[in-house]
Design brief:
Order of helices and strands: HEEEEEHHHHEEHEEHEEHHH
Structural class: alpha+beta
Radius of gyration: 57 Å
Mean pLDDT: 75
Strand order of the largest sheet: 4-3-2-1-5
CATH architecture of the domain at 3-67: Roll
Distance between the termini: 147 Å
Low-confidence stretches: 1-17, 219-231, 252-258
Oligomer: single chain
Helix content: 40-55%
CATH topology of the domain at 3-67: SH3 type barrels
Shape: elongated
């Protein structure tokens, strides 16, 4: 229903009184030439174009002659070289709001008389250096350039291009700065994440070493006491030493920190010396050594 007022306005401006009249059920009328009819819709030529209306919205169709039909009838009756008749038909079509048909007639006049000012002006042409031409051709003949829908002089065109170049360069620099900033933040975040991982790993990794009492394991919070490491828990209870990791406890460290075990010969000499009883001569020498 909203499209009906538009159709009525279009038909009212496009055709004069003599036309086919399509009467609508709502009271509106469309004037034009009925060019097609089907059981479901009716198509009307209103000059600038065609419109279709559903039959359920039509109450009656009144047949009559249209301005479009009148134009075609007159055009067929004009001789191809009759300048005045074509000019009169063009002006009549213009008054009848038949824009397309009026242009066709003015173009015929311009072909017959290229310097006809009325026809050339109606076609939108301008006089440039003694010649009638379109506005686009006139601008181009003066060196103008069409840029973004506007005709610009060469100087204006260069200035506009320079503005665009500066804008693009500024946008490129800003984009690169944003990219660099984002990459720097990403690197910083990655570095912080690695640092946190290293701290977490250091906090959970055991510290292994060799004590005189054997292999001792302690966390990073334990304290060494000289060469001997306490194997008691904070509560005073004995704590069993854990095995040493091969990668963190080299053999040379173990050999350096393990106690020296005497050999069998050393042990035999020590026993003999401990069980040997001194003789009389040894006792006299010892006594004499203590006398003044």
């Amino acid at each position: 229903m909203r499209g009906i007022p538009i159709l009525l306005a279009l038909a009212a401006f496009a055709t004069p009184a003599s036309a086919d009249v399509v009467v609508l059920r709502g009271g509106g009328r469309i004037r034009g030439t009925v060019v097609a009819e089907t059981p479901s819709q009716v198509t009307i030529d209103v000059g600038p174009g065609e419109v279709s209306v559903a039959r359920v919205r039509i109450s009656a169709i009144q047949r009559g002659a249209t301005a479009l039909e009148e134009f075609r009838r007159r055009a067929e009756a004009i001789a191809p070289g009759d300048l005045d008749a074509w000019l009169a038909l063009a002006q009549w079509a213009q008054d009848a709001d038949l824009g397309t048909q009026a242009r066709e007639a003015f173009e015929q006049v311009a072909r017959l008389d290229p310097n006809n000012e009325t026809a050339q002006a109606a076609l939108g042409n301008v006089l440039q250096n003694g010649r009638w031409m379109s506005k686009e051709d006139a601008y181009r003949s003066r060196g103008y350039v069409k840029f973004e829908g506007q005709w610009l002089s060469p100087e204006e065109h260069r200035a506009r291009l320079e503005e665009r170049r500066v804008d693009l360069e500024r946008a490129r620099i800003e984009a690169e700065a944003r990219t660099a900033e984002a990459e720097a933040k990403a690197r910083e975040a990655e570095s912080e994440a690695r640092a946190r991982e290293a701290e977490a790993e250091a906090a959970t990794t055991d510290d292994w070493w060799i004590g005189q009492g054997g292999i001792v394991a302690s966390s990073g919070r334990s304290h060494r006491r000289g060469k001997r490491e306490s194997t008691q828990s904070p509560g005073g209870e004995p704590r069993e030493a854990e095995p040493c990791r091969a990668t963190e406890c080299p053999d040379r460290t173990a050999r350096r920190r393990q106690p020296q075990v005497p050999s069998a010969g050393h042990r035999a000499g020590a026993i003999k010396e401990a069980t040997h009883a001194p003789g009389p001569a040894e006792r006299r020498g010892s006594t004499q050594g203590h006398n003044p």
